[in-house]
Design brief:
alpha/beta; single chain; about 15% strand; 10 helices; eight-stranded mixed β-sheet
């Protein structure tokens, strides 16, 4: 009986070791796979953050737009391209910073609409690597490009950089924010804004350590705390790319006494705003940033 009990204990311990070894092998395989996925996502980060569209997917010579082709240089001498749409009697100078999946030519009709409805001379440009601009996009470079575009527009209009209305959409909200903090702004208009890039990435990949692994930070949350000028921020309630709660966090952190948040019911990230939005934007600018004093 004693030998049988001893042999049973040995067999039990052997099975336990086998189970433990099997469990460890499974855990090790999962950890290795997870580590590989993290490295893969880190490798492809720039491709995910900057999904540059094909240059030829839109018309670069739209009829009747009245745009001027503009070539200018960023701080590191990167050659950039943009379109300037002058208004015959402008009330405002607009710099438009587009999102990460579009370029200048994608926005031809929209820029004409802004010029006409808001009575503004409008300048839209491409970040490095986008459209006809040279180079490759990266965070510091995109910030430098936005500031260079603001300086070009101010000089072209004969005003200070602080006289420019900065408009940003999605990624462009962070570029516009950086320019406003460093060079001033007549007003700041943010469409589908976000706090930080890791916050957005964490929403899409909650199982990845994006908050410490990402190189691209785009920390608008820290910058907006230093902005006290007029701010109009809008966000779609059905935004599946940047949840409206993230946009709200950015807005709530702004200490400006002249700020307004517009919810766009049912709008997703790439849905155009309704006409009512532009009426409210015009009313906001008429009150918070009226007139344009030309030099």
């Amino acid at each position: 009986m004693g030998n049988e009990r001893s042999m049973g204990n040995v067999a039990s311990r052997s099975r336990s070791r086998q189970l433990a070894d099997s469990a460890w092998r499974m855990i090790r395989a999962v950890l290795v796979t997870y580590f590989f996925v993290v490295l893969l996502m880190m490798f492809f980060e720039n491709w995910l953050v900057y999904p540059i569209p094909p240059v030829d997917r839109a018309n670069w010579q739209p009829a009747g737009l009245g745009q001027e082709d503009v070539w200018f240089e960023s701080a590191d001498d990167t050659r950039l391209h943009g379109w300037f749409l002058p208004h015959p009697n402008p009330k405002r100078a607009f710099l438009y910073c587009h999102g990460n999946g579009e370029h200048v030519a994608d926005n031809a009709d929209f820029m004409a609409y802004l010029r006409n409805v808001l009575e503004a001379s409008v300048f839209i440009f491409d970040y490095r690597g986008y459209g006809r601009s040279a180079g490759k996009p990266h965070e510091a470079g995109c910030f430098a490009d936005g500031k260079a575009a603001q300086r070009w527009l101010a000089e072209r209009m004969g005003i200070e950089t602080s006289g420019v209305v900065l408009v940003g959409r999605s990624l462009g909200t962070s570029v516009a924010m950086a320019a406003a903090i460093e060079q001033g702004a007549r007003a700041l208009v943010l469409e589908n804004g976000f706090t930080t890039m890791p916050d957005v990435a964490a929403f899409h990949y909650p199982w990845l350590p994006v908050r410490w692994a990402m190189d691209n930070r785009y920390n608008s949350l820290s910058r907006v705390r230093n902005y006290r000028g007029p701010l109009l921020q809008s966000h779609g309630t059905s935004d599946s790319v940047i949840p409206i709660r993230i946009g709200r966090q950015l807005f709530d952190a702004c200490p400006s006494s002249q700020k307004q948040f517009l919810e766009l019911p049912g709008r997703d990230h790439n849905d155009p705003p309704p006409a009512e939005y532009y009426r409210k934007l015009k009313a906001f600018l008429d009150e918070a940033a009226p007139g344009l004093k030309l030099g």
